[in-house]
Design goal:
Layout: H1 2-15, H2 20-36, H3 43-52, H4 59-73, H5 75-87, H6 93-109, H7 112-129, H8 134-145, H9 155-164, H10 172-178, H11 180-194, H12 229-254, H13 260-278, H14 284-317, H15 320-329, H16 335-350, H17 355-372, H18 377-391, H19 399-408, H20 412-418, H21 420-435, H22 438-446
Helix pairs in contact: 1-2, 2-14, 3-14, 4-13, 4-14, 5-6, 5-12, 6-7, 6-8, 6-11, 7-8, 7-19, 8-19, 8-20, 9-17, 9-18, 10-22, 11-21, 12-13, 14-17, 15-17, 16-17, 16-18, 16-21, 17-18, 18-21
């Protein structure tokens, strides 16, 4: 009865267009009232507050702040120019630039939508100028941005580590390391898919920097073209502060110097120093907008965390997750079938709700079943995050699709038409990660995490 009220009201709210965070919260409140009347509502503030007060989750707003500062500091433009200097002269080189730049920025932001927003305004117009259809340019950018929640530091991995702690222990550091190879595999798969994109006309001149029309980046003006040694060295020199960000963040974490939460603070402080004293693009007038933007983005994520925690509380108290898990445990003897069912389930879920909400709702269901089937917790975390990364580009609620379509001013259905080859590429990586656990475990085991 309670399960029907909980999931039924949640689905109805989603279908009528209520934002996911509010749909989760309202569905949970309706279920609590059905459980014990208005007196049950007293648990809402306590569960909500406890969930967002986690010291581990404190890393999320600081990583978001660091990403916003880096965008204002012009780091994203310089990363784009460096990627363009590396491969921009090749056939389909600019499409590869999109993937490389997204990979670089993913190692800074930890967020898919933030990655698309930071470099999409530069690269989508550049792809169109170089002969790609708008729908393909936009869908490529949206899918490349999905690496934002896979490549460390990843907000999704932080959330998974917090939620799964009730069932199995895994450190955030191990998950960060485990995400590196799947992130690289996704980048390679997207490059392969991009090589087959049709082009309407000849490319723009080789020396045309992708940021030329949208940003004051002058790498190509000082170079012999994006493939020239002078151009490569000039672009690399300007990109060094941005390239050092993941080195500082991940090096500090892997070296045991700082915790993931502390590394997020260090990243934000470093980005501010680079923006103010290095590139000198951040002025005092920008600080207010930076803080407001960061606070708004953080509030969205933390509201989702709080609402999803209340929803998960109702699921746990009524043993809904336990009932579903017990039903699936009948298949636990066939690990391959269980994994395939979970992949399909998460693909469907990811089409409707964001990764953070999905982790809070489905880790309690999926993790016990997969652990019983003999799948290790690291593989579970990486598989779920890579799977849910596809949800960022899966209609009807693919956040990256909306961000990229808004930047390109393209109808959403046009972007969805262009997403198919990249979705297939992403799905192939999901299946590889699910069925080859060494892809997740080899590197963290090698490094001793």
């Amino acid at each position: 009865m309670i399960g029907a009220v909980l999931f039924g009201s949640f689905l109805v709210l989603l279908l009528i267009g209520v934002p996911v965070a509010f749909a989760l919260g309202i569905a949970a409140v309706c279920s609590l009232v059905a459980m014990g009347g208005l007196d049950m509502l007293s648990v809402v503030p306590s569960v909500f507050t406890a969930s967002v007060s986690s010291e581990t989750l404190l890393a999320i707003p600081f990583f978001i702040l660091a990403g916003v500062i880096m965008e204002y500091a012009g780091i994203s433009r310089r990363l784009v120019d460096f990627a363009h200097a590396c491969v921009g002269r090749r056939k389909h080189g600019l499409a590869i630039v999109v993937i490389l730049a997204a990979f670089f920025f993913s190692a800074i932001s930890g967020s898919g939508p933030a990655t698309v927003a930071a470099i999409g305004s530069i690269l989508i117009p550049a792809l169109v100028r170089h002969g790609y259809e708008k729908r393909h340019a936009t869908s490529l950018m949206a899918t490349a941005g999905s690496m934002g929640i896979i490549v460390p530091p990843s907000i999704a991995f932080i959330v998974f580590a917090v939620v799964v702690s009730d069932y199995a222990g895994v450190s955030i550091v191990r998950l960060f390391v485990a995400g590196i190879i799947p992130g690289i595999l996704l980048a390679i798969a997207l490059v392969i898919a991009a090589l087959f994109l049709p082009r309407e006309r000849a490319a723009a001149p080789a020396g045309d920097s992708p940021g030329a029309a949208t940003a004051p980046s002058k790498v190509s003006a000082d170079a012999e073209g994006p493939g020239g040694l002078r151009g490569l060295l000039a672009a690399f020199a300007k990109a060094i502060p941005g390239l050092l960000v993941p080195v500082i963040i991940l090096g500090g974490i892997y070296g045991g110097v700082v915790t993931p939460t502390e590394s997020a603070v260090v990243a934000a402080a470093y980005a501010l120093i680079v923006g103010v004293f290095g590139y000198r693009e951040i002025k005092a007038a920008h600080l207010y907008r930076i803080l407001v933007t960061s606070a708004a983005q953080s509030a969205v994520v933390m509201t989702i965390v709080g609402a999803a925690s209340v929803f998960a509380y109702v699921v746990t108290v009524n043993r809904i997750a336990e009932s579903v898990a017990n039903a699936l445990l009948g298949l636990a003897g066939n690990q391959a079938l269980v994994l395939l069912l979970v992949v399909v389930l998460l693909l469907i879920v990811g089409a409707f709700i964001d990764a953070v909400s999905a982790l809070y709702l489905f880790v309690p269901i999926v993790a016990p079943v997969l652990l019983e089937a003999g799948v290790d917790v690291t593989t579970i975390g990486v598989m779920m995050v890579v799977n849910l990364a596809l949800g960022l580009v899966t209609p009807p609620v693919g956040v990256n699709l909306f961000v990229a379509a808004g930047i390109a001013r393209v109808p959403l259905f046009e972007v969805v038409r262009g997403i198919r080859p990249f979705f297939v590429a992403g799905l192939s990586v999901v299946l590889l990660v699910a069925f080859i656990p060494e892809l997740s475990n080899w590197l963290p085991d090698l490094l001793g995490f």
